[in-house]
Amino acid sequence: MPTAYTPGLTVTGDTRIRKVRRLPMKGQVLVEAGQHVQAETVVARAELPGPLTNIKASEKLGIEPNELPSAMRVSVGDRVERDQLLAELKSFFGIFHNELRSPVEGVIEHISELSGYVGIRQPSVPINTDAYISGVIEEVLPEQGAVITARGAFIEGIFGVGGERRGMLKVLAASPDVHLSATQLSDDLRGMLIVGGAGADAAALQRAAKVGVAGVIVGAVTDSDLRALVGYDIGVAITGHEDIPMTLILTEGFGTLPISQHTFKLLQSLDGKQASFNGATQIRAGVIRPEIIVPRDGDDGPAPERAEVVGTELVIGSRVRVIREPYFGQLSKVTALPPELQEIATGAKVRVAELMLDSGERTVVPRANLEILRD
Amino acid sequence: MATQASVPASTSSLPDLASVQTILATDCGSTTTKAILIERQEQEFRLIARGESPTTVEAPFDDVTIGVLNAVAELEDLTGRKFLEDGRIISPRRDTNVGVDLFLSTSSAGGGLQMLVAGLIKSMTAESAQRAALGAGAIVIDVLALDDGRAEYQKVDRIRSIRPDMILLSGGTDGGAVTQLLDVAEMIHAADPHPRLGLTFRLPVIYAGNTAARDSVTQVIGDQVELIPVANLRPVLERENLGPAREAIHRLFLEHVMKQAPGYDKLISWTHASVMPTPAAVGEMVQAAAREENTSVLAVDIGGATTDVFSVFGGTFNRTVSANLGLSYSVCNVLAEAGTDNLRRWVPMPVAEDRLRNGLRNKMIRPTTIPQTIEDLLIEQAVAREALRLAFAHHLQLAVGLTGVQQQRTISEIFEQAAGGATLVNMMELGLIIGSGGVLSHAPRREQAALMMIDAFQPQGFTALAVDSIFMMPQLGVLALVHEQAAHQVFRRDCLILLGTVIAPVGREKEGQPALHYTLTRADGEAEEGQLSFGELRRLPLEAGQEAEITCAPARGLDLGEGRGRTVTKRVAGGVVGLILDARGRPLNLPSDDPARIAKLRQWLAAIGAGETGTLSAGTP
After folding, report:
1. pLDDT score at A114
2. Domain A52-121: assigned CATH number
3. Is pLDDT of A45 > 80?
4. Using a CB-CB distance cutoff of 8 angstroms, which residues of chain B are in contact with residue A234?
5. Does residue B427 lie in a domain region?
6. What does the H/E/C string look like for A34-95?
7. Whether B42 and B123 share a structural domain
8. Is residue B92 located within the same domain as residue B118?
9. Last residue of some domain: B260, B293, B318?
């Protein structure tokens, strides 16, 4: 039984892309079905309620919670200013006077005679959700957002950091196996999505951030350079919220790995076009991969549904890449698939594949350490 | 555990157990789905075959049942029988070669249940609530208490920012004061928390505090969240009652989290009993082992995403889950938590930091790869030692004081707990360590599994070691709830593999000084004696099923449980590894300079027969 690892990454030049854009809370949808939108178009807006400031009013006034309503000088729903009188308590002869003033501006949300608390909701903050990609509104999700469809290129990377951004795609690498160097990164690349080759070192990434590029795509970086970029060791592989000035997308992995020919050719064909991209990655249940989307200009006709891009069947003749030491990153062709378990150097008995490496060497590798290629 | 009564029932009805001949059970892990076939052979149930396949919650499959079917298809290949038809499992059985009588499954796919726990007093109700959540299989992301040292606004911000899957709110004894509980409820109200997943769901909040405050708490937050009241988990000061809270957590775990794994609904419709969370199933088997062996047991299940530690000491069961310690998805979190120096200290060859870091990152993004070289294997086993060590340290923090369901405690013990709680884990008293999970169950040599566990847990005195042969404790755990006899028979005959007994004195001597003199008398009367120097590890063959008597005289500074320098005579059990005499001292210290450390590690690996390291580089990485 074939057990080569296939991460299921989509790399296609023409497909139908569907993006669900939702507000994090209920709000107002600003677009209609069938409407053409740009990536920057705000499709929905909500008012994020300000934080609720809770004041233990009865305690501050020195009364029981059930006495609070009679001391209150404002009611639920009233707008209050900072330092405005909320409640006061006068003793029988008016000698003792105790008062409570609002520490914040807001609206009185609750007055509890059970707990003695007064809650003041501070002013709300507007939140906008944009379309992220240019396309057509396929469906409006009432009070939540919209579904946008577009036709174009869709490329998934294997790991990324940094969130959603947009920019013109610019291929700087002459071939997929060259490194991006800091000297290639001139000021006129500001706001663009740069395509490097096999890798970018810390100096190049630092320069890219300084120039203000929106994103960088490379085959791989070293973990040390990733740490230098984000400022810490990423523990759990849930990314996209890093506080960094650009998005980094790796198409292959860590170390030095050329962008696959298929991906590189597609990126070359998209040079100069506007891309929407996101480095967010989640490698466990509910997997999320970093993505690059380049919608076609003015072409909303029927497009092929997203095809199964990476084959899942390992057969004799399959083009594969070894994804573990000692042949990590090497490209090869499967020459035999012995059905019986074989003992490898570690002493483990596993299913293997016999390979002819592109270097000409013949070797045997566990099937679990192969990735099927579509070059 | 009494938690299974409340899990949702499966749609397939349970067959007549007396007629059950063939049982199929799967465990859908975060990385691999494992299927086992069990069959009645004359008077006994035995394991027939095991198949596995990558778990298919990821694109392009997005359906956990595809991995189940692939793993079962491997069983078909291995046995030449037919279990699948039209993309589902054939049941009831049609004849000897077609179909199964019983199909069961456990699952840990879908990630963990992230819980926030809140109570009044950090060392009392909040700690009880934490134990309730952990015992039910949850990951506790924060523990809020009125006395936790944070300002109220900080706690409100924290509740807002972490977006838990569920909150467990506890506090107060039944009939006690209500006011402080309302303070906590007001905090939740102010934060207005929303669940991590799904816009349309209200956040489930389990209320397991003072029953007299239930209505008031409902008035404060009942409109905002999905409030689920259960019995107070601390009804009186000296008694915990964790069962009802755990049952509610289990139910919500299944309803809210496991259903996030695509295909889960389909899987539950196929099984004859509810799909059980993997850690709960392993916990069942650990408790069964402690009962049968009549000893204290420590068990660990190290997976790709999480590491679970279970212990039974003095009859009290505890479980902790280290949510982000594992060897594939979470491998880089082991790196982040332990640091490269701690990982490298277990590697018996020089390894460059970049090679180590990039290798672990690539394992993280391609989690199903396996080591092909000895170097790679030793690095993976080094990471496993650190993951186990960290997970065990986590367990020690929580397996303390008042624990377990309906346990009575005296007032003096309550004050002890208030002072921090004494750990229940006594390594000198520990009788058996069981290792489970791929890196231990599938280690190419059992000696490697033994050494990983000894290095990580550092057992003291006399401790038996075992591994789950092919990692089937989860499946047997769920089977035990349906067909106890079958689970028991397979556990004894096919699952648990005894590695042997480790004998390790506590304390330190000077390196190379005499540390331990022993006389081993085998069943046939043959005796052998020998002496170990401090820092030495030695293996004495003693086969599985055999016992021997050993008399150990530790040096003056060392203790085998009877006091420093005191001789101990015990009967010890053999295993596939045998007896391991560990005179490296406790705590175990490694030489600080690299060449000495590497030489020591190689000496130990060779002594126990865990692998030849002669071909490895000893020079610069």
Report:
1. 87
2. 2.40.50
3. yes
4. 332, 336
5. no
6. CCEECCCCEEEEEEECCCEEEEEHHHHHCCCHHHHHHHECCCCCCEECCCCEEEEEECCCCC
7. no
8. no
9. B260
Task: Select from A115, A226, A328 the Cβ nearest to the Cβ of B182.
Answer: A115
Asked if B368 lies within 8 A of A224 by C-beta distance, the reply is no
* Residue B242 domain boundaries: 113-260
Count up the domains in chain B and report the number.
2
**B162 and B238, same structural domain?**
yes
Per-residue DSSP letter, A330:
-
In a domain, B417, yes or no: no
Taking a contact as any Cβ pair under 8 Å apart, which residues of chain B between 230 and 289 contact chain A? Answer: 260-261
Check CB contact of B192 with chain A, cutoff 8 Å. Answer: yes
- Residue B2: the pLDDT is 33
Residues B88 and B130 in one domain: no
* Nearest-angstrom CA–CA distance, B284 and B297: 12
ipTM: 0.84
Please provide residue B418's backbone torsions phi and psi, each rounded to the nearest 5 degrees.
Answer: -60, -30
The class that CATH gives domain A319-372 is: mainly beta
Looking at residues B102-118, what average pLDDT do you find?
Answer: 81
- Which residue from B minimizes the CA distance to A365? B372
Domain boundary pick from B91, B107, B123: B107
Same domain, B246 and B125: yes
Q: Is residue B207 part of a domain?
A: yes
CATH 2.30.30 in chain A is located at 319-372
For strands B113-119 and B166-171, give the pairing: parallel
* B376 to A325: CB separation less than 8 angstroms, yes or no: yes
Contact A56 B359 (CB under 8 A): no
Q: Facing residues of A147 across strands?
A: A20, A139
Please give the residue that has the higher pLDDT: either B425 or A304. B425
**Minimum Cα–Cα distance from B184: chain A residue:** A115
CA separation, residue A243 to residues A247, B306, B333 (Å) = 10, 27, 19
CB contact under 8 A, A346 and B179: no
- Three-class DSSP category at A349: strand
Residues B142 and B252 in one domain: yes
A130 residue type, one letter: D
Cβ separation of A346 and B372 shorter than 8 Å? yes
Q: What is the CATH number of the domain that holds B220?
A: 3.40.50.2300
C-alpha–C-alpha distance, residues B405 and B123, integer Å: 17
Q: What is the pTM of this model?
A: 0.81
The pLDDT of residue B20 is 94
Asked if B72 and B123 sit in the same domain, the reply is no
The reply to whether residue A237 touches residue B329, judged by beta carbons under 8 angstroms, is yes
Q: In B, which residues are within 8 Å of A328 by CB distance?
A: 362
- What is the maximum alpha-carbon separation in chain A? 103
Residue B467 belongs to a domain: no
Number of cross-chain residue pairs from A and B with Cβ atoms under 8 Å apart = 187
Q: What are A105-141's pLDDT values in tens digits?
A: 999 988 988 889 999 988 888 889 999 999 999 999 9
| Cα–Cα distance, B455 to B465 (Å, whole number) | 13
User: Which chain A residues have a beta carbon less than 8 Å from that of B109?
Assistant: 285
Residue B397 at interface with chain A, using a CB cutoff of 8 Å: no
Whether B86 and B211 map to the same domain: the answer is no
Specify the pairing of strand B461-468 against strand B496-504: antiparallel
* Residues of chain A positioned with their CB less than 8 A from the CB of B59: 8, 10, 287, 289
Degrees, nearest 5: CA angle B288-B26-B493:
45
B345-395 pLDDT, tens per residue? 999 999 999 999 999 999 999 888 999 999 999 999 999 999 999 999 888
**Do residues B159 and B168 lie in contact, with contact meaning Cβ atoms separated by under 8 Å?**
no
Structure-model confidence comparison of residues B430 and B256, the more confident one: B430
